[in-house]
Amino acid sequence: MTFEGAECHILPLYFNKFTAPFYSKQTGKMQIPYLKLHASNQAIKAELMKATESVIDSDWYVMGRHLEQFEVDYASFSGALYCKGVANGLDALILSLRALNIGAGDEVIVPSNTYIATWLAVSYVGAVPVPVEPRITTYNINPDIIEAHITPRTKAILLVHLYGQCCEMEAILSIAKRHGIAVIEDNAQAQGATYKDLITGSFGNINATSFYPAKNLGALGDAGAITTNDESLMQKVATLRNYGSEKKYYNEIKGINSRLDELQAAFLSVKLRYLKQQNSQRMLLAKLYQELLRGVGDIILPQQAQYASHVYHIFMIRTARRDVLQDYLKKNGVGTLIHYPVPPHLQKAYSELGFRTGAYPLSEIIAKTGLSLPLYPGLKNEEIDYVCTTIKKFFS
Fold it and tell me: Per-residue pLDDT tens for 16-59?
């Protein structure tokens, strides 16, 4: 797998000195948090500090040259013509919908299993989220059942490349073209993933991503971006994110203040150079998990769709004994998370839609059985071996 665009750097040799396993003095057991950003950030700390100095010395902290350079770099990485940085991933989704003039009375196809931000963006523009179930094998939205949910009010399919795996884009784009509706990618979990060698963030009419610190490409705070190949959409985003203004103090439309600041843009420019390498490490760690956990208990391991790649933002297993396994791992020093314990249709925030338990059974099964294991750059093979050995002891 190759990525055109941003130059790929190799992490410094001292990267490993930040990744030595930690043992509890009380129990003598290895302690492995679900997520640890220290190693990857410390390995490039000198470059991040240099970027900080560059921003400070520029005397320009909003909408300056560091943001412009990152936008060029990230567009190139994503195989898109244009990129605009915004304050966070939710804003990126909202502005993408607004750029397409989606609002009150419209419907937007969304995954039934996703982080609630995907649905919130649709709600914030006044439209209605229309959930579609996933393939239970890949957890991404199932193209085979999308058309059954399309009505005359449907304006877009807002898909999510969940956990780091690219959706089945050929089928989804074909459906959208046939019905004359837009496609929006929520690419927050899959920067660098591909479908038939084309990269996420380049497929949709307009595409949103988050650079929350835990993402594969994470800032040191909140940050987001929008990519597109449509110049008119990009110009509208540029205006919307800046109070609806193209020229200072002249406001063409009612916009918001959602601008990726210079410091985060400078950090992201540094970190983008290492993304390909870190994604490759994630894939290797995931492969090791696959090898060590195959055939263990009732565990269901992640699967990939044909032609899709997976950059493993999340490595989620499924088991009917999820809750007791999570507790057992915690007692043995292993941190885990559940992505996500309550699907959006059962959240109190969406009670007005009237969904009940059983409305989207596949999403509910995933919510009840899914457990995300530690996986991040700097995690060592021996730590994965410990996680898997502990899981095997649980099932034995």
Answer: 555 667 776 667 789 999 999 999 999 999 999 999 999 999 99
Is residue 3 scored above 50 in pLDDT? no
Its pTM stands at: 0.94
| pLDDT at residue 29 in the model | 81
SS3 for the chain is CCCCCCCCCCCCHHHHHHCCCEECCCCCCEEECCCCCHHHHHHCHHHHHHHHHHHHHHCCCCCCHHHHHHHHHHHHHHCCCEEEEECCHHHHHHHHHHHCCCCCCCEEEEECCCCCHHHHHHHHCCCEEEEECECCCCCCECHHHCHHHCCCCEEEEEEECHHHECCCHHHHHHHHHHHCCEEEEECCCCCCCEECCEECCCCCCEEEEECCCCCCCCCCCCCEEEEECCHHHHHHHHHHCECCEEECCEECCCCCECCCCHHHHHHHHHHHCCHHHHHHHHHHHHHHHHHHHCCCCCCECCCCCCCECECCCCEEEECCCHHHHHHHHHHCCECCECCCCCCHHHCHHHHHHCCCCCCCHHHHHHHHHEEEECCCCCCCHHHHHHHHHHHHHHHC
> What number is the average pLDDT over the span 318-343?
98
